[in-house]
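Entry, Tuesday afternoon. Goal for today is a structural model of the target with zinc ion bound, before we commit to ordering more compound. Inputs were pasted exactly as handed over by J.K., no edits. I checked the ligand SMILES twice against the vendor sheet because last time a stereocentre got dropped in transcription.
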Amino acid sequence: MKFELDTYHRNTPEQELLDDLIRVSKELSKDKVTIDEYNERGKFHSTTLTRRFGNWFDTLKKAGLEKTRNLNLTDEDLFGNIENVWIRLGRQPKYNEMLAPLSKYSAGTYEKRYGTWRGALQQFVEYVNKIDEPGATIISETSTGATQRHKTKRDINWRLRFLVMRRDNFKCVACGRSPATNPEVVLHVDHMLAWDKGGETIYENLQVLCSVCNIGKSNLDFREE
Ligand SMILES: [Zn+2]
């Protein structure tokens, strides 16, 4: 254990503390660094980090490092997280951008599963491009009791959502706002011809709208009815 004066590292920038923790995790080649492991190899004392970031788990999270439970993650979880980060950035995420709070899992988690970060991105793209087979005709009832036939479900799976987002440049097609430039913007994928009115859940009938424009659109639809 190191002896350290309480105030000594008070002015060390957050990123420097986190970078040192990440360095130790790389040295050990593992995602989870214990307090003892850090105190043995770290430039600072673990209490300097916990005083800054809360408990040790919060510190690991802040550095984009996670607990071992992440080894049980499915491809769907890992790719879904890439999708979220990609949408928030409005472009392909870089290795060193896979950090909390933007990303739930570190680039290291992806390397462990897919070899390299590049490999993870390639697998992600392949996964997204898998096209669902057209299903059987779905017969459903509308709110007015009429019968409708659809070839697709109303729900938009995240792979299709991602393809539509990419085509629309991760921006609202109505007002042009995007989370990349305005973190408060939330994007939705919307049926141009409403599903209730016979619109299908297909690439050509979907568009990106922000939550504000999407609400505006529903109101218009309502008035039309
Ligand atoms: Zn908008």
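The mean pLDDT is 85.
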